[in-house]
What we know:
By secondary structure, the chain is of the alpha/beta class. Strands 1-2-3-4-5-6-7-8 form an eight-stranded parallel beta sheet, covered by helices on one side. Strands 16, 17, 18, 19, 20 and 23 form a six-stranded mixed beta sheet that branches. The longest helix has 22 residues, at about 350-370. The chain starts with 12 loop residues before the first strand and ends with a strand. The model has no long low-confidence stretch (mean pLDDT about 90).
Amino acid sequence: DLCVLSDNNIIMALDLSNNYIDALDCLSNMTGLVVLNLNSNLIRDFGLNVYTPNLLELYLADNYLSDLNGIDTLTQLTYLDISSNPIISIDDLLGLENLISLDLENTDLTTINNIDLLTKLKYLYLDADLDDYYILDYLFDLVQVDILELDADLEFSFFIDYMAAYNIIINTKSVVSFDLENPNILMSTLDATINYGTTINFDDYIIEVYDYWDGYMYDQSITYSVEDTSLLDPGYHLITITATDDDGNKTSVIFQLTVIDDYDLGNLIVFIRFSDETDFVAPQNYEYFNGLFNGDTLSLIDYYREVSFNSFHITTVFPNNDIAFYTDSHPRGYYQPYHSGLNPIGYQNDTENYEREYALLSNAINWLETSNLVSEDRILDYNLDGRIDVVTFLISGHVDDWLDLLWPHKYAMYDSLDNNNEFYIDAPQINGDYVFKYTFQMIGDSVELSPYFDLGVFAHEMFHIIGAPDLYHYYSGDEIESVGDWGLMDNTSDIPSHMLLYMKEVYGGWDQDQIDVSTDGSYNLNVSTSQTDNLIIIDLGYSNEYLYLEYRQNIGNYESNIPNAGLLVYRVDRDFENLGNVDGYYDELMNALEEVFIFRVLTYDETTFVNTGDYFIVDDGDANLAALTLDGLFQAGPSTTIPLFFSDGTPINITITITAQSENEITVLIDFLN
């Protein structure tokens, strides 16, 4: 019982280490104590106070202290050991102005900020993972610092040498030997990746340049073999960084700079047929297929150039510049659903479906690689991430049912990755670049192309690769069409129209020249294909929802396929960003699960509207008739035939009225009611 020692003012030194002490209340009145050892106990709260005013040495190592609240009353302390405690701050210690020795090893400290307030410190013991060792330079009485678990980098080795010049010893686990004659360059990294056309400052990657005789060196002593990185072409570049000291001695390091072009995508074509189709030939020749992907007009590359204002280019590579089929070792039925009578070799569940697809595609890629049909000078990895940007597999035959294996889709080779998302060394690759993202398309038979083999399907699946979700419903039977033929990710024809501008900006990354509207007024809006003033956005300030306005015209090769010309008014719910419209319109609480919904004439439940003021859709009308025009339906909002409402059915009290319209511009009056 420690309390038998209470009020004892004779004992000057007391060793209570290696016990089960968990409280210090009974020691607080031992006014004669000078030395107290409480190492290796169970102490969680510091309880000593002003009644032990003469304490000079205190040892509290190996306890459970997370703070030292109250220790600042021990103003005479000169030696303090709080190592092996979960201490997270030294703030409670900063009033101990007489401390000479402080042990902070094996704590939870990440910083020793303001330790320079302990101006009499001579001996300090620290952990190896602190952020601010350089504050030691401000402890002018310091004699020795032990950081015994630290492997000093080049910069800290400079600092150790610098401190040694002032007779301060810093002991670490290891140091880096540095050049005593030539400059030493310390870099934060020796490689970086930038976008094409970007200028970087190499100083951002240089931590220090230090010369033993001249000290720290600055910009005027450092040169670069490339001064303006914006002029570099996409690819790998080795930049030489050279430091020259006052005596003309030089040191150089090589910096690898990777320049990528974010606006390019490499697409590899792989043809596949099955073991029971060895005589299958494509229904069209190479020139047709190449034109569909690489042609000057009405092609995949042309479509994405147009929708991106010529900033996104998809280059498609055909192996050996021809049609070369990989013939699989299994018949077609192996990749179709199981049926006990009709197809006993088919896959029986989703797992078998995926495993067989992965094996099919892997074998096709491995065949292509061993056949050396893809020249090494063909660029397939424009962003230089070690992956082919996308592979398009063209499969013999017609489509099966939706969600079957033999149905057009986009996916990725996830089984090529280990638990750290690194590729297995034997994962399928072409010329050193791994295959990951892909699209899967059905060609048709040897006589005619599949109805699903057209530019619209390829553009749709490629926008998935770029990042866009679907805007149609997967499973819902609510029969509500949200976007219709106005958006590539809902319905598309063989010649696709443009995406909605929201989809372009958010998923394509192709900036639009938007007009942010928050007040009543008349606003001029250019046609959606214009690069200026082509989009109006209204932040509704509710439920992360926005109104978008864009003016579509039947112009060009692709927009000529929109249902009709006019102003689209649509709601975007950013809570569903990246999710699209796949879950259907309503949940069980009758809230919409839509990322995008285009307003149009529709029928709503009038009883619900009378009782609650909310809109509940009974008949969604025709989304393809949604465009407002000056000489037709020219107004949307309350008390019009086109009501505007939030995802939960609450009315949007804004009226939008067309007041003028020409081929290239439309004028709208926006009235914020209430």
